[in-house]
# Entry
Amino acid sequence: MEMALSSPNKMIWNYSFAVRRAVARAEQADDPSLARQDAATVVFLCVTLVEAFLNCFFRVLVSERKLGDSGSLVTQDLNKRKPLARKITKWLPLLPHAGSEHGDHVWSEFEALRQLRNKLMHFQSSHETIAIPGLHIEGLADTSAYDQLNAAHAAWALGVAEEVMLEVFIRAGQSESQRRASMHLWTGLVGM
# Structure
């Protein structure tokens, strides 16, 4: 495969556009099963979007020497493909500012999104049994995490991912106008 070189924001930009298209499809779907499929796709992609963003954003900070000696921790974690939870707990404190007033809410919402993604991604049959007079069915799977999805979940997941990115910009010390520019740079979003 031939190497393709791009700016660090390319993947984040493209993931963001893919997510917004899937949210729009979910919101416009006449069939709830189609909305559910797009919502599941959005949940998966929004967690991926956040992790890819953290990887790229912090790698840029390392290359710009904005993390000082702590940059080696980020580089080592990237090289060893450390899990997302570690990146959140170990990398965010490296940023110079504490975050916004609603930062705790942002991270709790993201954790809820991540847990929903995990339920969907690590799905396995729970091998449930139901019995009614004259009928006994074994081997059923609990699909409630998936079956509850709808267009609102898709919009929520996108909102959570964008709030996480904004929170990272706040912790990086960006002004409001810088955050708007960064959201455009990283996600293509205009007018936040």
